[in-house]
Write a structure and sequence with these properties.
This protein is an alpha+beta fold. The chain has three helices and eleven strands, in the order ααββαβββββββββ. The two termini are about 30 Å apart.
Amino acid sequence: MGSIMSTEVSIAELEQRAAALEQELEALRSVIAARRATEWALQDVSAAPPSADVAKAPEPQEEPEIPAEAPELPHDCLRLSATLSDGSRWDIAVPFSELTRPGGVSIGRSPELADLLLDDPGISRRHVLLELGDQGVTARDLGSTNGSAVNGIPLAPNTAMTLLDGDTLRLAAVDITISFLL
């Protein structure tokens, strides 16, 4: 707090810090809302009170089955989901610990250059960089040929934009849905 009280910090810098904190707070609120929605969806529906017509106690119900195709995802991760131009699904969970490493996690078409492979014709060899830092999870276009955008807002090359739960990250013509799993 001492650095904020310093007379050397300009009003513009304070406003930038406040905006970044507001974005982080909104991201946390989105994560909390998503977590609550997941918990509510998993609650046992047999907890509902029996109707007046039925005097007997409700029979216990089995736990809902998770479909076999649903992957087990780690907690505290970023989930990236997309449908590629050939109709195939791309669904990746990236632990937050990977996003904090030096250089973050890159997405691209080249197995030699990118950490996460996204094999679609419009994707550059090393297209975008994902990082977790003071402003939350950010996306940074790496000078790709066909560009990147967050919720329709183009990313300038090498400029980071904060990602929020439910955002759409577009790489060329591929829309990736962003989800935070805690």
